[in-house]
Amino acid sequence: MSIPVVNAAMLTRHRLLEVCPPTPSFVEMRIVIAKPGLDGHDRGAKVVARALRDGGHEVVYTGLRKTPGEIVRIVMDEDAAALGLSTLSGAHDVLVPAVCDGLREEGLSEVIVFAGGIIPSDERDSLHNQGVRAIFGPGARTSEILEFLEAASGRIESGEPVGVGENSGWRWR
Amino acid sequence: MAMALSDSETMSSALSGSRRDLSRALTAIENGASFDFAAADPWTLGVTGPPGVGKSSLIGSLISKWADRGERVAVLAVDPSSPNSGGALLADRMRMQEADSADSVFVRSLATRNHPGGLASRISPMIDCLHACGWSRIVIETVGSGQSEIRIVAFADRVLLVDGPDRGDVIQAEKAGILELADIIAINKSDLPNSEQAADSVRTAMRLVNGSDTPVHLVSAHDGSGVDDLLEEIESCSFSVGRNRLRAREQLLSAWDSRLLDHPGLNEVLDSLETGSITLDEAVESLR
């Protein structure tokens, strides 16, 4: 949206509206971004967390080196609708299924799970079969992650299964 | 797969001990649902202070000690939403070690959703909900970087102000009116140089505030020194009747803010103000 002519009063007004909208602003989704396992690199996770925030989501970042059990606990306590797992250590084939199983066991089947980091393309199918709905590797655009979340919430609204424990073959692209 | 429960079903499941449903009930309250709780007296601590002084780390240390004593600790960690996108990045819990594993610790991150007054009005029922579900120590953390954020701690029975060495921010805190609200002051990062001087200057400043006897503790969330003493001070700090009026005042201001921002005529009045067709006084009058 562009405003061709901006005078001081308008600017003040627009700032005022930004700072104090008349009703609580619409929040897209609560999302946990997590770093499972012994992986000390979180630049990517932070970039994604930031991009999701800028897309209007409330993002809880877990910090480094979380166990699958801790991640499930965080998703539960934060009542998150989605969980993004960032892993660059090569242990995704152990850690990601452990998180997905934990979510299902704790009654969090409706949570949307997506992953990112270094996940070789021939290992992606098995993660998708675990209920991971999207995998974003190096070079993925943050706008694409936002599009994925929009598609996923569209599915929720129309009652189509998209959660980690909901039987569905759906995956992003 | 769990069926969607009604709010009241969720609440009764939360009351019978379901952590999952407690979390859902808090979301419902945050989004405006209201529940009736039996009159009770929850134990609450508000923690505020400038960004980066180690509030979350210090709360993390306190959590561990409380958990060791058999208390069940719940933390409501409040961070501001982005004014541009409405989104928020909530990362307080990553500084609290036991937050993600102990059964006796529950941490919920909350965004102000650009409406701190609105959140303030939801904080009380959230506290009541946590108390009713058996959480014996309830901590509310806010960044002390804006008046309305600070106001949220006025909903706690006791207030801990955290500062760090080399900041001189106690003057900022004084300006924001938070010093008067603080029951206890902690100078964190005592493992760093100059922390003793920082504590001294805060003590000096405090003596100038009407001969205040607010205790000032030098602590380190990093190496744990002083945290036991701070915990004892917090535990022995009774509900301060002297600050009742201040607290009530901040709560009233929060509620007032909230009412103004939720006023159905707000947009119209802003339009008129923008074009200059009414004065500020007239605007205030019409939003009464």
**Share in β-strands of chain B:** 5-15%
Query: What would the average pLDDT of chain B be, to the nearest integer?
Result: 84
- Intertermini distance of chain A: 29 Å
> Which runs of chain A of at least 5 residues are low in confidence (pLDDT < 50)?
1-26
The overall pLDDT average of chain A reads 85
Query: Unreliable segments of chain B (pLDDT under 50, ≥5 consecutive)?
Result: none
Number of continuous helical runs of chain B: 12
User: Major sheet of chain B: order of its strands?
Assistant: 4-2-5-1-6-7-8
Number of helices of chain A: 6
Structural class of chain A: alpha/beta
* Total E-strand runs of chain B: 8
What order do the helices and strands come in, and which of them pair?
The complex is a heterodimer of chains A (173) and B (288).
Chain A: H1 8-19, E1 30-34, H2 43-54, E2 58-61, H3 68-77, E3 82-87, H4 92-105, E4 112-117, H5 124-129, E5 132-136, H6 142-157
Helix pairs in contact in A: 2-6, 3-4
Chain B: H1 7-15, H2 19-30, E1 44-49, H3 55-68, E2 73-79, E3 88-90, E4 105-111, H4 116-132, E5 137-143, H5 147-151, E6 158-163, H6 170-175, H7 178-181, E7 184-187, H8 195-208, E8 216-218, H9 227-236, H10 244-261, H11 266-275, H12 280-286
Parallel strand pairs in B: 1-5, 1-6, 2-4, 2-5, 6-7, 7-8
Helix pairs in contact in B: 1-2, 2-4, 4-10
Task: Give an overview of the whole structure.
The complex is a heterodimer of chains A (173) and B (288). Chain A has 173 residues and is α/β, with parallel strands linked by helices. In chain A, 40% of the residues lie in helices and 15% in strands. Chain A has 6 helices and 5 strands, in the order αβαβαβαβαβα. Chain A has a 5-stranded parallel beta sheet with strand order 2-1-3-4-5, sandwiched between helices. In chain A, β3, α4 and β4 form a beta-alpha-beta unit. In chain B, strands 4-2-5-1-6-7-8 form a 7-stranded parallel beta sheet, with helices on both faces. Chain B is globular and about 60 Å long. The mean pLDDT of chain B is 84. Classes of the chains: A alpha/beta (173), B alpha/beta (288). Chains A and B meet through α1, α2, β2 and α3 of A and α2, β3, β4 and α11 of B.
